[in-house]
Design a protein that fits this description.
The protein is α/β, with parallel strands linked by helices. 27% of the residues lie in helices and 19% in strands. The protein has three domains: 337 residues, TIM Barrel (Alpha-Beta Barrel), CATH 3.20.20.300; 183 residues, Glycoside hydrolase family 3 C-terminal domain (Rossmann fold, 3-Layer(aba) Sandwich), CATH 3.40.50.1700; 114 residues, Immunoglobulins (Immunoglobulin-like, Sandwich), CATH 2.60.40.10. The longest helix has 17 residues. It binds 1-deoxynojirimycin.
C-alpha cells in the first residue's frame, strides 16, 4: 500500500477523521456497550462518524463485523476502521491481574498471557490492545496498582518486553496478533497521594532513572502505539507535552508508531488550565505530536479551521494520518478489514482447555505465601470451615477483565472438595451474625480458612483508598478464630498491597490477589501442597498507611535512620519504625533454602569487562520448590545520589529436595550506570556494593570497584 498516495486522495475532513476514536455504538446505535466514561453526548454528526479512524472497545466477532460492514458501506474512502480495546490480563480466559503475575518473577508467563489474550481477542476482530500498563507503582492507595508490575524499574522492563512480544508476535499481519499500545506516558504511577488523575511532579533524573524505563522497554520491544497519561509532567499535561511526545519519543527513542490520548484527555487540558477551549486544545495536541484523540472532539471540530487559517501546518496532520494508516496497513486491514473476526474461531479458541490450563499455571506462580507457621500445606483429613466475605466468591477475575465471565469460575469450596479436602462448613456471613449453633459447628472444625480481602470494585481506575486496612472490619474474622481457639489460614483476594498488621496472628496468609479464571483451582492446589508457592512481592507492604510511599529502592538522604541506633535528628516517625511489614521480594515456600557464600570473579572491574556473581542455594527440606534469587547493587558515590538498592538481576530455579543449584549473574559497567536528565546513560567509576539475597532486606554483600581505564 502506498500510503502517501492514499493520503493525497483524502479530503481534509477525511484525514482528520483518521485521528478520531469513538465507541462502536456510534456506528450501530443498538450496540450500547459499556465503555469507561460517557461518550454518548459528543454531538457528532453522521458525516463525521463515518469518517472516524478507529473504534474503542468491541464485544465480539458479530458486533465487529456489523460495525466494520456498516462503516465501509457508508464511508467514501473505504479505509477500514481499526478496533482497539483494553485487553489487559486476558480476553475471556483471564490470567492473574498484572500485579499478581509480576510476583511470579517469571517473564515467560507474561509472554504466554499476552499471546493467549491476543489469540482470543483477535477472534472478536480486535487489532490493538491498550496494554501493557507499565507505570511504576509505589503508592498502594492508588487503585491502578492492580494493573501495574510493581515498584521496580528493572523487573518492569523485563516483563514489559515479554508482554509486548507476546501480544505482537513475529508478524502483525498474521491473524491472532495484536498491536501493543503501552501506557500511560508518562509517570502516571506517581500521582500525588495515590489519587487517580492527580498531579505528578518529579525531577527529570527520577523520571528517566525510574519512571521512563517501562515505556522505553516497550518501544524497544517493538510496541506500535503509546498512550499519553492524564497527569501533567513539568506542569504540562502529558497529552500535549511536546517534550515527551516529540523530544523524548520521536527524537531520542526514535519511535515511529502512533500516539493516542487517554480517554477524553485532550479535552481535559481545559480543566488542567492550559487551554481555553477545545479549539486551543486541538492546536496544542497536534503541535505536541498527539496523533489520535480518544473520545473527545477537539481535532474533528477544529483542526480544519486551524489548517485553513494557517495556524496549523498541514504537514503536521499528514504525518499523524500517515502513522495511523501505516498501522492499518501493517495489521493487514486493507487486505482484510474483518481480520480475525470469526464466530467459528471464537468457539474454538475462547476459554478453550489449553488456555485455561495456561491461566492456571500462571496463577500457581502468582500467589505469595506471606506467613506460615507450618500449618500449610494442609494436612490430610482435617475438618475445615471456610468463612469470610469471599468464602463463596467466584469474583476472581479482577479489574480490567470486561470480556471475562466470573460466573464460569469455581468457588474455593468446589476446588478444595475436588481435591478431596473435607470442607464441612462454608459461610460468608459477618462475624457478628453467627448464631450460637453456628459457632458450635465452627468449634467442631480442625481449622478455618478465612477468605478475606477487597472486592473487584475496590481497586482499578478511579478506585483509590485512603486507608489500606482490610475493608469492612474483616480483621474481626481473625480475632474470632483466635477466640474460638481455631487455627486460621487467611486467603486474601485483592488488588493492592494492604496493611495486614492486625491479622498477623493468623497461622498463615496466602496472598492470592485476583488470580483470574482458574484462581480457586490454583489456590486449592497451593493450600494442599500439590503446588509449592513461589511468588515474591513486587510492591512493598507497609505497616501503616502513614509510611506510604514506601519502596525498597529509595535514596538514602543525608540523615538516614539506622535501625537500632537511637539518633533523634534522623528521618523517622515518633510512632512507627521505617521498616515495611513485608519487604519487596518477600515470599515464602514450603521448602527451606540455604544460601551459600556469594562468589565474585573479580573485585576490580574495568570498562568492557563483565563481573560474574554466583551463589549456591540448597534446598534443605523434603519438598521440591522454586526459589527466586535477587541481585541488587548500590552505587556508593556518584555525581547524583543513587538508591540504597537497585535490582539488577533475578533468577528463578526449581530446586529438588536436598539439591543445590548455582545461580549465576553477570553485570557489565553499563548495568552500573544511570540516566542523566535527558535519559542518556552515564557510567562513573568508583565503589559499588553488590548484593544477593532472597528478598530486598536479607542480602549478603561485597564491594567492587569500577575502574575507568582498560586493564593492560
Ligand atoms: C482510561 C484508562 O486510563 C486507559 O488505561 C484505558 O485504556 C482507556 N480508558 C480506554 O478504556
Amino acid at each position: 500500500m502506498n500510503i502517501n498516495n492514499l493520503i493525497k486522495t483524502l479530503t481534509i475532513e477525511e484525514k482528520i477523521g483518521q485521528l478520531l476514536q469513538i465507541a462502536p455504538f456510534f456506528f450501530i446505535q443498538e450496540l450500547e456497550k459499556e465503555v469507561s466514561g460517557n461518550i454518548t453526548d459528543l454531538g457528532l454528526t453522521a458525516s463525521k462518524i463515518f469518517k472516524a479512524g478507529s473504534v474503542l472497545g468491541i464485544g465480539n466477532a458479530t458486533e465487529m463485523i456489523q460495525v466494520q460492514k456498516r462503516y465501509l458501506e457508508k464511508s467514501r474512502h473505504k479505509i477500514p476502521l481499526i478496533f482497539m480495546a483494553d485487553i489487559i490480563h486476558g480476553y475471556q480466559t483471564i490470567f492473574p491481574i498484572p500485579l499478581a503475575l509480576s510476583t511470579s518473577w517469571n517473564p515467560s508467563l507474561f509472554h504466554t498471557m499476552a499471546k493467549v489474550s491476543a489469540l482470543e481477542a483477535s477472534t472478536a476482530g480486535i487489532h490493538v490492545t491498550f496494554a501493557p500498563m507499565v507505570d511504576i507503582t509505589r503508592d498502594p492507595r492508588w487503585g491502578r496498582v492492580v494493573e501495574g508490575l510493581g515498584e521496580d524499574p528493572y523487573l518492569n522492563r523485563i516483563m514489559t518486553a515479554q508482554m509486548v512480544k507476546g501480544f505482537q508476535g513475529d508478524d502483525l499481519k498474521k491473524v491472532g496478533h495484536l498491536a501493543s499500545c503501552v501506557k500511560h506516558f508518562a509517570a502516571y504511577g506517581a500521582v500525588e497521594a495515590g489519587r487517580d488523575y492527580n498531579t505528578v511532579d518529579m525531577s527529570r533524573t527520577r523520571l528517566f532513572n525510574e519512571y521512563m524505563q517501562g515505556y522505553h522497554a516497550a518501544i524497544q520491544a517493538g510496541a506500535r502505539m503509546i498512550m499519553t497519561s492524564f497527569n501533567v509532567v513539568d506542569g504540562v499535561p502529558a497529552t500535549v507535552n511536546k517534550h515527551l511526545l516529540r523530544t523524548v519519543l520521536r527524537e531520542t527513542w526514535k519511535f515511529d508508531g502512533v500516539t493516542i490520548s487517554d480517554y477524553d484527555s485532550l479535552h481535559q487540558i481545559i480543566e488542567h488550565g492550559v487551554a481555553e477551549n477545545d479549539s486551543e486544545a486541538a492546536i496544542l495536541g497536534i503541535k505536541a505530536g498527539l496523533d489520535i484523540e480518544m473520545a473527545s472532539i477537539c481535532y474533528v471540530n477544529y483542526l480544519k479551521t486551524h489548517i485553513e487559517s494557517g495556524k496549523v501546518d498541514m504537514a503536521l496532520l499528514d504525518e499523524a494520518v500517515y502513522r495511523v494508516l501505516k498501522l492499518k496497513d501493517d495489521l493487514g486491514l486493507f487486505e482484510d478489514p474483518y481480520k480475525g473476526a470469526s464466530t467459528l474461531r471464537e468457539q474454538a479458541l475462547v476459554r478453550c482447555e489449553d488456555h485455561l490450563q495456561k491461566a492456571k499455571e500462571a496463577a500457581l506462580e502468582s500467589a505469595v505465601l506471606l506467613t506460615n507457621d507450618g500449618i500449610l500445606p494442609l494436612s490430610k483429613n482435617k475438618k475445615i470451615g471456610i468463612i469470610g466475605p469471599y468464602a463463596k466468591t467466584k469474583q476472581t477475575n479482577g479489574p480490567w477483565s470486561w470480556h471475562g465471565r466470573n460466573d464460569l469460575n469455581q468457588t474455593l469450596e468446589d476446588s478444595l472438595k475436588h481435591l478431596g479436602v473435607d470442607i464441612l462448613y462454608v459461610s460468608d456471613q459477618k462475624v457478628e451474625s453467627y448464631t450460637d449453633e453456628e459457632i458450635n459447628v465452627l468449634k467442631q472444625m480442625d481449622l478455618l480458612i478465612l477468605a478475606l480481602g477487597e472486592n473487584e470494585r475496590e481497586s482499578g481506575e478511579a478506585h483509590n483508598r485512603s486507608d489500606i486496612k482490610l475493608p469492612r472490619h474483616q480483621e474481626e474474622y481473625v480475632s474470632f478464630a483466635k477466640r474460638i481457639m481455631k487455627p486460621s489460614i487467611v486467603v486474601l483476594y485483592h488488588g493492592r498491597p494492604l496493611d495486614l498488621t492486625n491479622i498477623l496472628s493468623a497461622n498463615a496468609i496466602l496472598d492470592a490477589y485476583f488470580l483470574g479464571s482458574m484462581a480457586n483451582q490454583a489456590i486449592a492446589e497451593l493450600l494442599t501442597g500439590i503446588h509449592n508457592p513461589s511468588g515474591k512481592l513486587t510492591m512493598t507492604y507497609p505497616k501503616s498507611i502513614g509510611q506510604v510511599p514506601l519502596y525498597y529502592n529509595h535514596l538514602n538522604t543525608g540523615r538516614p535512620k539506622v535501625k537500632g541506633i537511637d539518633n533523634e535528628f534522623t528521618g523517622y516517625y515518633l510512632d512507627i519504625d521505617n521498616e515495611p511489614l513485608f519487604p519487596f521480594g518477600h515470599g515464602l515456600s514450603y521448602a527451606s533454602f540455604f544460601y551459600g557464600q556469594m562468589r565474585l570473579d573479580r573485585h576490580d572491574l574495568h570498562f568492557h569487562e563483565t563481573l560474574k556473581i554466583e551463589v549456591d542455594v540448597t534446598n534443605t527440606s523434603e519438598i521440591d520448590g522454586h526459589e527466586i534469587v535477587q541481585l541488587y547493587m548500590r552505587d556508593l558515590a556518584a555525581s547524583i545520589s543513587r538508591p540504597v538498592k537497585e535490582l539488577k538481576g533475578f533468577q528463578k530455579h526449581w530446586i529438588k529436595s536436598k539439591e543445590t543449584i548455582t545461580y549465576s549473574f553477570q553485570l557489565t559497567p553499563d548495568d552500573l550506570g544511570f540516566s542523566d536528565e535527558q535519559g542518556h546513560l552515564i557510567i562513573e567509576p568508583g565503589r559499588f556494593q553488590i548484593m544477593v539475597g532472597k528478598d530486598s532486606e536479607h542480602v549478603q554483600s561485597e564491594i567492587i570497584r569500577l575502574h575507568e581505564e582498560v586493564k593492560s
